[in-house]
Design goal:
Elements: H1 3-15, H2 21-24, H3 32-42, H4 49-58, H5 60-71, H6 81-88, H7 97-119, H8 126-153, H9 157-169, H10 179-191, H11 199-208, H12 210-215, H13 244-253, H14 263-272, E1 276-278, E2 292-294, E3 304-306, E4 309-311, H15 316-327, H16 330-344, H17 351-363, H18 368-377, H19 394-405, H20 412-421, H21 445-462, H22 466-473, H23 479-486, H24 490-498
Antiparallel strand pairs: 1-2, 3-4
Helix pairs in contact: 1-21, 3-5, 4-5, 4-22, 7-8, 8-10, 8-19, 10-11, 11-15, 13-14, 16-17, 17-18, 19-21, 21-24, 23-24
Organism: Pelomonas margarita
Keywords: Signal
Pfam families: DUF1800
């Protein structure tokens, strides 16, 4: 029988091992080993063989207490030398916003000149055009490689899953205009430094980053009575007020769709944020540094009525005041608490946990370290009902597979292609709401078939035995699954374990 066909049949047999709902809802407390694995799967991207060995050596309880403490203070966790060296060699992490936008500007200019030459009957210099384009293309590939390398090898696993969560919350799409060349800088400057900091700081950093200004069009938003102009971010002329960012700022980033605002509030907030854009001098050849600038000439300085308050014209301070109010709003606390609990605990999170998180957010002033600590110490996080209750996204499935097999990130391109085929290309969510974290978004026949194929490929590459993989995954693989695997050919057991319902959950 064809090995791939046999693997599909074996996976179908494993699929029948799902526990009935009544048994899955058992209130039996998690064992020490299950708690350790639960932490690795929810607060990281799953166990590696070294993690399993450390748990066995130190004892699960002692290992877990140390893990929870260290993860909240990632500076205590030194990155492996190989990871640090790899990241240090990536140009995209060294370039500033102005330099990155310069790369994009040169590529656009070359493409425009090539099209003009074609229109005039000439033949463009394809080599010259490709040479310029090749200055841009590697930047996005480097950004993706850096993300995967950190998620795979960094001991600060909590920092990595939080970076994924908050990037997704403040999503920007790499395929829009200059956003692709700015992605790494956006993640490095606007997201990563704040995942265990204050929400207001992250909110402000994303609001001022050129990737967000371009993606949601605030860079081209001007007061109705101001003259439009072209920018490198958007060669088309700006045409008055643009409400895209103001709408998503309230609907997605803070209050939520049911947060009590109106369409007039969207318009008034957009007026408050006019002038938040890019510094023209930073778009010229040879420019360096950050590209954000407030332009009072483009700002609507009239009085606004927003969220029931009268806001007098005050330039950039209007937008800062809006961010202050949104970051401290109870509706923002509720929305973030529900989304956080949904991503890390259950698709339908316990109301008690959501309330704890919302209360923590408000009383701490949006301290995300305390917000995360409350989640990690909450009884609801450690209940039996939460254990393996989440279905892995394609990104989580890929990383947990690589970590369990202890595979290096030698060539990331096939892995990035696998993510695209699975419907979750890295930095590829086109809409501002990012990727879903619930099972309904990812658990379908086509997606499961793709995972089986990836499991077969990775299993063949790894050379890891089923016994070693089973030891790494420990209690997260049920006894029933292990019995079924034991009856399958030895050469298929690793792939079948990766393709099992047990491993697809976390």
């Amino acid at each position: 029988m064809n090995p791939r066909r046999r693997l599909m049949l074996g996976t179908a047999a494993l699929a029948g091992l799902r526990l009935p709902t009544a048994l899955a809802g058992s209130a039996a407390p998690l064992s020490a080993e299950e708690r350790a694995l639960h932490a690795l799967n929810r607060l990281g991207y799953g166990p590696r063989p070294a993690d399993a060995a450390a748990i066995a050596d130190q004892g699960a309880d002692a290992w877990l207490e140390r893990f929870l403490t260290e993860q909240l203070t990632p500076r205590l966790l030194a990155a492996p030398a190989a990871l640090s060296e790899r990241l240090a060699g990536m140009e995209v992490l060294q370039l500033g916003q102005a330099e990155l936008l310069g790369r994009y500007r040169e590529a656009v200019k070359a493409a425009r000149e090539a099209r003009r030459e074609q229109a005039q009957g000439g033949k463009p210099d394809a080599d010259a055009l490709n040479a310029v384009r090749e200055q841009v293309r590697p930047l996005l590939a480097q950004a993706a490689t850096a993300r995967l390398a950190r998620a795979l090898h960094s001991p600060a696993q909590l920092e990595e899953v939080l970076t994924e969560f908050w990037f997704n919350h403040f999503n920007v799409f790499a395929g829009k205009n200059a956003v692709g060349v700015l992605i790494a800088n956006y993640e490095h400057q606007a997201i990563r430094p704040h995942v265990l900091g204050r929400f207001r700081d992250m909110l402000g950093a994303t609001a001022k980053h050129p990737a967000m200004l371009i993606y949601l069009d605030n860079a081209q938003s001007v007061a109705a009575d101001r003259p439009p102009r072209r920018t490198v971010a958007n060669p088309q002329r700006a045409n008055g007020l643009n409400e895209n960012y103001a709408r998503e700022l309230m609907e997605l980033h803070t209050l939520g769709v049911d947060g009590g605002y109106t369409q007039r509030d969207v318009t008034e907030l957009a007026r408050m944020l006019t002038g938040w854009g890019l510094e023209p001098r930073k778009l010229l050849a040879g420019a360096t540094g950050d590209a954000f600038a407030f332009d009072p000439r483009r700002h609507d300085n009239g009085t606004k009525t927003w969220l029931g308050q009268s806001i007098a014209g005050a330039g950039q301070a209007e937008g800062e005041r809006a961010l202050d109010m949104l970051a401290a709003h109870p509706a923002t606390a509720r929305r973030l608490a529900h989304k956080f609990a949904q991503a890390f605990v259950a698709d339908e999170p316990p109301a008690s946990l959501v309330q704890k998180l919302a209360d923590s957010f408000l009383t701490s002033g949006g301290d995300l370290r305390e917000f995360t600590r409350v989640l990690m110490r909450a009884d609801e996080f450690w209940q039996r009902e939460a254990f393996q209750a989440k279905f892995k996204t394609p990104y989580q499935y890929l990383l947990s597979s690589l970590r369990a097999l202890d595979l290096p990130l030698a060539n990331p391109q096939p892995l990035l292609q696998a993510l695209s085929q699975a419907g979750q290309p890295l930095y590829g969510a086109q809409t501002p709401d990012g990727y879903k974290t619930i099972a309904a978004a990812w658990r379908n026949p086509e997606a499961l078939t793709q995972r089986v194929q990836l499991a077969a490929t990775l299993g063949q590459r790894s050379g890891v035995s089923a016994e070693r993989l089973g030891s790494t995954l420990g209690a997260s693989v049920s006894a029933a699954t292990r019995r079924t695997l034991a009856s399958e050919p030895a050469g298929q057991q690793v792939a079948l374990m990766l393709a099992s319902p047990d491993f697809m959950k976390r």
